[in-house]
Structures are given as structure tokens and as C-alpha cells.
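Async update (no meeting this week)

Hi team, since we skipped the sync, here's where things stand on the single-chain job. The sequence we agreed to prioritize is pasted below, unchanged from the tracker. I ran it this morning and attached the output directly underneath so nobody has to dig for it. Comments welcome in thread, and please keep replies under the output.
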Amino acid sequence: MDELQLVIFDCDGVLVDSEVISNEVLAQALTAEGLPTTLAESRSRYQGLLLDDVVTLAEAQLGGALPGNFLKRYEQARSEAFRRELAPVPFAAEAVRRIDEAGLAKCVASQGKLEKTKLSLELTGLRDLFAAEELFSAYSVPRGKPYPDLFLHAAATMQVEPSRSVVVEDSPSGVAAGVAAGMRVFGYIADSDEVALREEGAEILRSMEELPGLLGL
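Output:
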């Protein structure tokens, strides 16, 4: 790739340890609506999707509509669970600081809403590592991951060519989006499927502690 200028982080599962919490809350919410769902099933079916797509898929499996306030209630329950349990991914803060010290640009590009990203970073002590203009959401582009729109938007806003950008992701859809954007992609596998990430084109990252070295810092 061209000389590295920008590192784009996914948020959930990369900077904050949120995937188990989010999917446990989702599994409980769907089960309560008559669609029995385990944590493993929630992660397999819904992780990495936009919430509207989660509803569409769940309703197809349920064979009927979920209540109109389902997403609002789910998001409220998830926020409450985050406040009780959310923690930063080990060595994430140190990796971001090393990137800063090296003079590289960095940002967060999440499938979730901007409000959720801000809350997650605040609860884990990571918010001060990113300026407001360094936070991006798939809700600001026409298509979320696995399409490249979000990463291309982030790079364009940061005024960096895609070929000079690296993505750090933990989901197959996120890796696919980064590859489609023409970026080098690291797949963080601490709580993810290594084979699935490799199949989408990721280079494997086993610990955030390794990231600065893999970036040549």
C-alpha cells in the first residue's frame, strides 16, 4: 500500500468490549417478543448489521411485526447495560496514543449511531482520544457495512486517499467494507471468528497491543 496516513477504527469489539453485552440484550428482547434467541444465535444472525436490518431479519423469522417501539426499548436497555458493564478493549487506548504520537490521523467509523459511539467512548474513558470530527456513523451514508461507503466517507472527510488508510475491524461485514474501499484491513480476533475474517481479506490482529508494531510504528 501507499504510505500510511490514516487508521480507521471500528468501535464495538475493537475499542470497546460491547458485542457480548449488546447481543445478550438483543437476545433477551427478541425472546420476550416470542422469538427465542440465544446469545450465540444473536451474534451469528445480527452482529454487525444496522438496527433496521436486524428488525427486518427478525420479523422474517418471527413471521410477524415487532412492536413499533421495539428498537427504542432495546436501545434504552442496551444503554443501561453499557453503563453497568462496558469496558475498553485491552491496549486500545495505548494503540490510539501511539498512532497519535507517530503523527498519523485516526478516526472511528461505526455501524452504530453517533450517539451510541459517543456514549461507549465516554463510559470507557476513550472519548478524549478522538475529536468530534473524527467520529463517523453508517447512518450518515447511503449504505452501511459491508458496503465501502462509510470508510470512503471517513477517508474523504479526513482528506486521505483510501490506499493510504488502514481499517481495524472485528466483523466479517466490516472487513468486507474495508477491502471494498481499497484499504488494508486488520481483523481483531479476540472475540471474533478468525477464519471468517481471513476469508473476507483481513490480516489477523490478535491483540491491540500488537497494532502499532504491525503498522510499523
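Quick observations from my side:
DSSP finds ten helices and six strands in the chain.
The first strand starts at residue 6 and ends at 9.
Reply here if anything looks off.
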